[in-house]
Amino acid sequence: MSSKLDLKMDKLPAHIAIIMDGNGRWAKKKGNIRIFGHQNGVEAVRDTVEGAAEIGLKYLTLYAFSTENWNRPRTEVDALMQLLVSSLEKEKKTLMDNGVRLLAIGDLLSLNNNVRNKLQKVIDETSGNTGLKLTLALSYSGRWEIIKAIKNIAVDIQQNKLDVKDICDKTFNDYLDTQGYPEPELLIRTSGEHRISNFLLWQLAYTELYFTETLWPDFRRGDLYDAIVNFQSRERRFGKISEQICE
Ligand code: FPP
Q: Residue with the nearest Cα to atom 12 of ligand 1?
């Protein structure tokens, strides 16, 4: 497993996004119920966030609950929401100790009041922190975000606040929940699944993808550093040819 010393600090990605997958399978392997996997997933979140803050990463975005996750059994959805509330309470100190600012993207209005209030409280309380920006994607999907952007663009055109000829990549970015974020340079998905699953569909256009067999509850900062070491060994061409890329 890689350590901090294996990283090229001048070549850190500015933004890493993670699809945290495999909680259910991890619990099943241990003969336990799915929520046990989610509970242990919180430890993986803590160590990953601390590890990211420790190396000075600027943005970390975690897919914590997708639009599609609402279709899971009611008991699991309730347990996940409860876990989110208790984790926000318990982990606030971790965020403060590490200078982490909490942010959230997604259809936050669909969360129940208790979850939304707790989330907003921690967002407010960490808003002065200047280190890692930790974004939780909650009730989020890439298609939902893109459709919302298109609707808002249409309204602004109708109200003469935007001209069709001014729509470009930059304009579109400004209508997304991730407005102002650098695009993720690295996407990590755990548990051996090789899918994007409706995560950051617009933003991932040029992102390097990294898949690991590790199930999320077993993921630790060393696994994050493994992914970064792997990323740093890649050549990013953005449609150019090798000879056009300078070090
Ligand atoms: C995917 O595993 C994981 C989730 C849908 C939830 C992620 C939640 C956590 C890591 C815990 C709480 C998070 C925070 C931010 C406090 P899965 O259930 O799809 O696993 P499976 O594919 O093995 O069934």
A: 42
The residues that are catalytic are: 21, 69
106 Cβ closer than 6 Å to some ligand 1 atom: no
- Based on its alpha-carbon atoms, the radius of gyration of the chain, rounded to whole angstroms, reads 19
Sheet with 101-105: list strands edge to edge. 101-105, 133-140, 59-66, 15-19, 186-189, 208-211
Ligand 1 within 6 A of CB of 94? no
Q: What is the pTM of this model?
A: 0.95
Q: Report yes or no: 204 and 187 within 8 Å, Cβ to Cβ.
A: yes
Q: What is the pLDDT of residues 37-86, one digit of tens each?
A: 999 999 999 999 999 999 999 999 999 999 999 999 999 999 999 999 99
Closest to 64 in 3D by CA, of 9, 11, 19: 19
Contact 216, 36 (CB under 8 A): no
The span from the CA of 167 to the CA of 36, in Å, is: 46
CA angle 211–78–28, rounded 5-degree value: 45
Q: Where are the alpha helices (DSSP H) in the chain?
A: 23-29, 34-54, 74-97, 113-125, 142-158, 169-174, 221-232
The residue type at 204: L
> Cα–Cα distance between 218 and 40 in angstroms, integer?
8
25 lines ligand 1 (CB under 6 A): yes
